[in-house]
Q: What sequence folds into this?
């Protein structure tokens, strides 16, 4: 693996992270800036980019820097509460819903197994991760239909649903009407309300 210089990460520690070496578990912990999670060197999570790695002597220092303990390797025996874990996932989905989001990708980012993430998300949030992602995408599509003149195709692509046939089907399933019908109905409603407001002002 190509090494990128990071003065905060000694080469010896980096090699331990890459090799998932348990002999270093009581020597240091490492945090990943892009996920906000810290792990043992032996953690089986995907090897991060070295530029994003922070080294910590112990869990307290990592937590002081607002890093959260990994759900997979539980550094120093710490366990992130499920509710906090799910809020972290919600925040990530809200920021990345336009991308291709799968259960495996969510599990990789959160350092948990796909099945455990699925069960915990459903228990805490009352729906599966997929359902939540769909909800976020459709909510954004509704906002775009109401506030822009972008085409249905462009809106579908913008919210992470580039298969337009699927976008239309999902939108109708969630709202009861197609995107085009929804926009037309909204415009008619706005026009009627504007007309009524004008009559009232007279």
A:
């Amino acid at each position: 693996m190509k090494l990128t210089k990071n003065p905060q990460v000694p080469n010896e520690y980096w090699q331990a992270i890459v090799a998932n070496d348990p002999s270093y578990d009581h020597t240091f912990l490492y945090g990943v800036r892009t996920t906000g999670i810290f792990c043992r060197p032996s953690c089986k999570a995907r090897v991060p980019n070295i530029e994003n790695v922070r080294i910590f002597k112990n869990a307290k220092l990592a937590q002081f820097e607002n890093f959260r303990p990994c759900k997979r390797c539980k550094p120093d025996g710490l366990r992130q509460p499920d509710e906090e874990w799910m809020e972290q996932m919600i925040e990530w989905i809200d920021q990345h819903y336009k991308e291709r989001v799968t259960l495996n990708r969510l599990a990789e980012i959160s350092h948990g197994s796909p099945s455990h993430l699925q069960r915990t998300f459903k228990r805490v949030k009352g729906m599966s991760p997929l359902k939540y992602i769909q909800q976020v995408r459709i909510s954004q599509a509704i906002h775009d239909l109401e506030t822009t003149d972008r085409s249905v195709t462009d809106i579908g692509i913008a919210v992470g649903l580039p298969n337009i046939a699927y976008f239309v089907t999902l939108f109708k399933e969630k709202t009861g009407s197609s995107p085009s019908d929804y926009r037309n109905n909204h415009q008619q409603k706005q026009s009627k309300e504007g007309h009524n407001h004008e009559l009232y002002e007279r």
The radius of gyration is 23 Å. Strands lie at 29-32, 37-39, 53-56, 68-69.
